[in-house]
Specification:
Layout lengths: L5 E7 L4 E4 L10 H5 L5 E5 L14 E8 L11 E3 L8 E3 L3 E10 L1 H7 L4 E4 L2 H5 L5 E4 L6 E2 L2 H13 L6 E4 L9 E4 H4 L4 H9 L2
Antiparallel strand pairs: 1-7, 1-10, 2-9, 3-8, 3-12, 4-7, 4-11, 5-6, 8-9
């Protein structure tokens, strides 16, 4: 289905399995962190050519966040949110990223090259205590390349739910291999409460 090589490839990551430390409980978050979870999160894009047998020469020149992966969308189980009477953070990250490469590659190969990517979750209190971060990863291979019709469907949903991101990162020399970390404060949408407040103040 996605066998045709391309320089523009869109992948939906599904980071619904954990590794590292335990997922933080509500009491591990400060009031400021609870109000804006972006402060506790980062995304590591791990471009590892060793994940495939083919020789990898392509460079990732641009990464566009269609969906930041953590903004809650009503009726969906992905995204992060605190629910009443729940001790733990609910949901999981599922970012949708569009990659621009310097040469055509098979989409399935890019998906495998990036298979080690993950979200990192920690809080200031856990960091001060020397606790290992919680890593949200894809252990089951659920991350997948999206076809054009799927991209259109996702974009329609994201725009309807005010969850479209659009943040773009450019790498003229190519995305560094073996782990490039992006703080969520640099790419994720602000909390919905802030969006509502800013609209109400106009």
């Amino acid at each position: 289905m996605h066998s045709t090589s391309s320089t523009s490839i869109t992948i939906r990551f599904v980071f619904n399995k954990g590794d590292g430390g335990l997922i933080p409980t509500r009491r591990d978050f400060s009031p400021t962190e609870s109000a804006d979870l972006r402060q506790c999160l980062s995304l590591t894009l791990d471009a590892d050519p060793g994940n495939i047998k083919s020789r990898w020469k392509a460079k990732i020149l641009e990464v566009v966040f269609l969906y930041d992966g953590i903004t809650p969308i009503r009726g969906k189980d992905f995204g992060y949110r605190f629910l009443a009477r729940k001790t733990y953070l609910q949901g999981y990250p599922a970012p949708i990223l569009q990659f621009l490469l310097d040469r055509p590659v098979r989409p399935s190969l890019l998906c495998r090259v990036l298979a080690g990517s993950c979200f990192n979750l920690t809080t200031s209190s856990l960091s001060e205590a020397g606790e290992e971060p919680y890593y949200a990863e894809d252990h089951n291979g659920y991350s997948s390349v999206l076809a054009d019709v799927e991209i259109a469907t996702w974009l329609a949903l994201l725009e309807q739910r005010h969850a479209y991101c659009g943040k773009t990162f450019v790498f003229p020399d190519g995305l560094p291999e073996y782990g490039y970390r992006l703080a969520a404060t640099d790419f994720a949408l602000p909390p919905r409460s802030r969006i509502r407040s800013s609209h109400a103040s106009r």
